[in-house]
User: Fold this.
Amino acid sequence: MQQVQIKIIAKDVTDKGEEDMSIYTTGTLEKNEYTTIITYEETSEGMEGVKTQIGFSDNVVTLTRSGEVSSTMVFEEGIVNASRIATPYGEMEVFMTPTMVNTVISEKELTCELQYDLMINGETINKSLLFKCNVLDDNIIN
Assistant:
């Protein structure tokens, strides 16, 4: 298990306008025969105490959250996936349609770009997400 520095840049576009968000945190990276897994604690407002785990495998990205907010979302280009998100205020069903899933893993960095449409309660949000992860020590990812 390696310590990593994580940078997430998110952009939401709706008919009401755009919203940008950046998150910087630290976490861990594990690699097995099939998947590279990043784990970190959420730091954004309203997500305190939520643990996020992101698995990267053959251009399929699986995002799992546990804690006050729990969900599992699967991103595979061109495949519509449904997910339930449980919050302290109730559950909701969301649908994701990824239009781009691009993951590159090098010796010292993991980069993932996601673009997808997210439908919640009949409203579609166009989302783009850039996820960068850098190894903090002298170890390598591969």
